[in-house]
Amino acid sequence: MRAAVAFLLAAVLCFGGGRAASASPDFDYPAAFNFGDSNSDTGGRIAAGFEPMPPPYGSTFFGAPSGRFSDGRLILDFLMDAMDMPFLNAYLDSLGAPNFRAGVNFAQAGCSITPASATSVSPFSFGLQIKQFFAFKEKVTRLLSQGDRYRRYIPQLDYFSKGLYMFDIGQNDLAGQFYSRTEDQVIASIPTILLEFETGLKTLYDQGARKFWIHNTGPLGCLPQNIALFGKDPTQLDELHCVAKHNRAAKIFNLQLHALCTKLRGQFAGANITYIDIYSIKYALIGNYSRYGMQTRVNHILLLPRKPSIKKSFGPFRISYQ
């Protein structure tokens, strides 16, 4: 597993794709500001009080649940570590005197790029996360004007223009639609999703953001939950036994996201936009799992809450409700 983590981190750092990505990227940033979903949520959803997070979450690194939907660290954590920066605290987490001097994390598990609806898993859509960012910036400005009392806990004002703005979002916009829509309908919605994303990026740029680090979406069809629910027909699976239609939609989303990044490089004067091909990195990791210390491709998914002590099998997956 350590080899898998090393591969993933090296791939992210060296093969970002697009201008500004290189084998030795310059990671000299005073702060980072992250927007996203469960792939980079470091405690936002739990701090909002949506649900409990009992073990085994956090068990392999933190020794206890850490607010991450993982038993250990997230890609975001490894990136922060690679930049010699502390892990980002969630914007909503006020317990334990969190330090926001090196940035803040607005990511929320279950959120989407498009505005939340009555059926959304999380109300904290991309647009709302941006509003939280501006509320954060406004409060930082006010606190700094009061003297040195809070300076060790919050970013300096120039950090907002010099900092790295990170994005890992869009997975839920696609995956959620497959429960009620056809593949063609999901694909047809992608331009609308990305228009909302573009609007958010432009808003941040207009307010001084210049360094953008954008992850594309991963292979949705390889998520255990999607394989369990949509992968019962073997003819609908790809060569890695992932759900083909989900992955096709993800690829089309990523092609259009890449085109958007290329367009914005021409429009955002003085900006640096790095596009990270997370899809290819994760798909290669899944396809070559044995090289990185894993004995099976996927063999377990743990779903927490609701009904206690219920175990159910979906093909190769064991679902445990605790």
Automatic annotation (TrEMBL):
<protein>
    <recommendedName>
        <fullName>GDSL esterase/lipase</fullName>
    </recommendedName>
</protein>
<dbReference type="GO" id="GO:0016788">
    <property type="term" value="F:hydrolase activity, acting on ester bonds"/>
</dbReference>
<comment type="similarity">
    <text>Belongs to the 'GDSL' lipolytic enzyme family.</text>
</comment>
<dbReference type="InterPro" id="IPR036514">
    <property type="entry name" value="SGNH_hydro_sf"/>
</dbReference>
<dbReference type="InterPro" id="IPR001087">
    <property type="entry name" value="GDSL"/>
</dbReference>
<feature type="signal peptide">
    <location>
        <begin position="1"/>
        <end position="20"/>
    </location>
</feature>
<dbReference type="Pfam" id="PF00657">
    <property type="entry name" value="Lipase_GDSL"/>
</dbReference>
<keyword id="KW-0325">Glycoprotein</keyword>
<keyword id="KW-0732">Signal</keyword>
